[in-house]
Design a protein that fits this description.
The structure holds 2 protein chains of 2 kinds. Chain A is 0% helix and 54% strand. Chain A is an all-beta fold. Chain A is globular and about 45 Å long. By secondary structure, chain B is mainly β. Chain B has no helices and 11 strands. Chain B has strands at residues 4-7, 10-14, 19-25, 32-38, 45-51, 56-59, 62-67, 72-77, 86-92, 102-103, 107-112. Chain B is globular, with a radius of gyration of 14 Å. Classes of the chains: A mainly beta, B mainly beta. The A-B interface holds A 4, 31, 33, 35, 40-45, 48, 50, 58, 90, 92, 94, 96-97, 100-102, 104-107 and B 6, 9, 32, 34, 36, 41-46, 49, 89, 93, 95-96, 98-106.
Chain lengths: 113, 113
C-alpha cells in the first residue's frame, strides 16, 4: 500500500522556469491538499481539493495553480518560478467521513535559483 | 478562518523527562484536533487525535488534553526517549464540515540522551 506518493523528490529550477509536482494517492480519498513548509512557518496551505474536478485556494495560493482531473491525482504547477518559492512541498489526502486522518507524502524539496 | 498558535517553537529535554507542547485555536466550531510528528526528511504522521466530546486521550506515553472553554489543547509525552526527537505539529479542523486542517507552526523537540 503506497499511500501518498510525490514526484519528484528533489528539483532545482532557474527563476522563470515552470514545473509540475505530482501527487498520487491510492486510498480513494476525496480530499487532497498541497502545503509548503518553510523554517519557522509550519505548514501553510497552498490549494486544496474536495473532489475530482474541484479546487480551491488556501492561505498562500499566489504563483501556483492546481488541477484534479482524476480523483487519485492532484497536480501543483508553478508557471514562472521565483526564489521565494524555494521550499519543501507536501501533498496530503484524507477521507471526508469516518477516519479523517490526513496522510502525507514524503515531500518535494524545491530550490529556485 | 481558523488560527492555531503553538508553543514553544523549540523544546529541549533530558531523556526520561516529560515534554508538553501547547496549542490554542480561535474558531469555536473546530471539533477535531490531531497531532502530527515529523521526523527528519519525512512527511508528518498522525500520532494521536482528540475530538471535542472528549477531554483527554492517552496512548502509551503520549496523551492529549482539550479545554474547549479556553480553546486550548496540549500534547504530553512522558518518559521521553531520543527517538521522540522530531518536529510536532498540532492542528484544528471541523469534522463533518469543510475538513481543512489548520496547522500550528510546529515544535522542534530535542531529547538528549
Amino acid at each position: 500500500n503506497a499511500g501518498v506518493t510525490q514526484t519528484p523528490k528533489f528539483r532545482v529550477l532557474k527563476t522563470g522556469q515552470s514545473m509540475t509536482l505530482l501527487c498520487a494517492q491510492d486510498m480513494n480519498h476525496e480530499y487532497m491538499y498541497w502545503y509548503r513548509q518553510d523554517p519557522g512557518m509550519g505548514l501553510r496551505l497552498i490549494h486544496y481539493s474536495v473532489g475530482e474536478g474541484t479546487t480551491a485556494k488556501g492561505e498562500v495560493p499566489d504563483g501556483y495553480n492546481v488541477s484534479r482531473l482524476k480523483k487519485q491525482n492532484f497536480l501543483l504547477g508553478l508557471e514562472s518560478a521565483a526564489p521565494s518559492q524555494t521550499s519543501v512541498y507536501f501533498c496530503a489526502s484524507s477521507s471526508h467521513t469516518g477516519n479523517i486522518e490526513a496522510f502525507f507524502g514524503q515531500g518535494t524539496r524545491l530550490t529556485v535559483v | 478562518g481558523e488560527n492555531v498558535e503553538q508553543h514553544p517553537s523549540t523544546l529541549s529535554v533530558q531523556e526520561g523527562d516529560s515534554a508538553v507542547i501547547k496549542c490554542t485555536y480561535s474558531d469555536s466550531a473546530s471539533n477535531y484536533f490531531p497531532w502530527y510528528k515529523q521526523e527528519l526528511g519525512k512527511g508528518p504522521q498522525l500520532i494521536i487525535d482528540i475530538r471535542s466530546n472528549v477531554g483527554e486521550k492517552k496512548d502509551q506515553r503520549i496523551a492529549v488534553t482539550l479545554n474547549k472553554t479556553a480553546k486550548h489543547f496540549s500534547l504530553h509525552i512522558t518518559e521521553t526517549q531520543p527517538e521522540d526527537s522530531a518536529v510536532y505539529f498540532c492542528a484544528a479542523s471541523i469534522e463533518r464540515g469543510s475538513y481543512i486542517p489548520t496547522f500550528g507552526r510546529g515544535t522542534s523537540l530535542i531529547v538528549h540522551p
